[in-house]
Structure formats: C-alpha cells, structure tokens
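Q: How would the structure tokens look for this protein?
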Amino acid sequence: MDRRALIVIGIVFIIVVFIALFILSLSRSAQNRRQEVSREVVGERKTIPALDVVEDPLVYDGLTIEVEGLVADWVTKRSFTVSKGQRGGLLTGGEGSELLIVTKDPLPLPKDAKESEVGLGELVNVRVQGRARITSRAELSRILGVDLGDEQNEDSDINLDDNDLIIDWRQGSIILAESVEKL
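A: Here is the predicted structure in token form.
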C-alpha cells in the first residue's frame, strides 16, 4: 500500500471514531435529561391535577396520590367534590368538572374544626392525600353508605342531593382520602 492510501484510511478511521463519540455523547445527554426530568417530577411535583385523575382513571387507579383543589360541593358528611379545573379556555369551550373525595370519618362542623381541618360546608382550597379508585354506582353507594338506587331518577336517598355528579354517576374515579388539609 502506498502512503496516500494509508493517509486516507487513517482520516476515515478518525472521522468514524469522532462520529461514534458524538453519537454516544448525544445518547448520554438525552439519558441524563430524562433522569433530570424524572427527578423533577418525583422530587418537586407531589400533587396530581384532579383533572388528570378524572380524565385518565386507569393511570391512577389503586395509587396513593395527592391532589389540590377547591371544594365545590358537599355530598355527605364524609364526602365532597373538588373542582378539577378545565381544559381549554373561554373561546375553546373548556368544560369544568369535579372529582369526588370520600373520607373514612365524618368531617367536623366548622366551629369544631381545627385550624388546618376542613369543616362541613366550607368551600375552601384543600390538599387531599388518598387512594384513587374507579368505582361503579353500586360500589359508590356502599362506600358512601347512601342508597343511590340502581338507575338515575329511581326513588333513592340521593335524589335529595343537588349534585348532578352523584345523581348521574355510572362509573368513575374517586379518592378514598387518608388526609384532608385546608390550605
């Protein structure tokens, strides 16, 4: 082989090595970025938007999560709805809705509630930690301890309530709250 061929082979070899190192550095930086993002999500963001729990129930079903929101309505002494916000804006027709929160024990009256506790009937911002669960109408009836009946408009206890979410309930996500804190 002459000298010219060796130089060309050497240059091609060096270029291939540089390209391989460049590709390797790109993949490592992408991997590092993914790890940083996952650390940010896990480390800094503890609360899950209530909107996500309602719209993607299978993702959160069975997980212990934390949500924040405004108490929108009271259903029973042990349950209330949290406003989940809305997707879209004024011009795009965003639709607001609610996530049902059920506590193990009845909540106290406002005069009996501690400073960080939510009192019955208060419409305040709360942080709720609990287990997300997909429930049917019959299962929700059992959890609430209220006769929801088998069908909408059937004679049942819930017809006394003005909350369409409960009256029209078929199946959906709820949070079985372990703690409720007033913000």
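Confidence is low (pLDDT under 50) at residues 37-43, 88-95.

The radius of gyration is 27 Å.

Upvote if useful.
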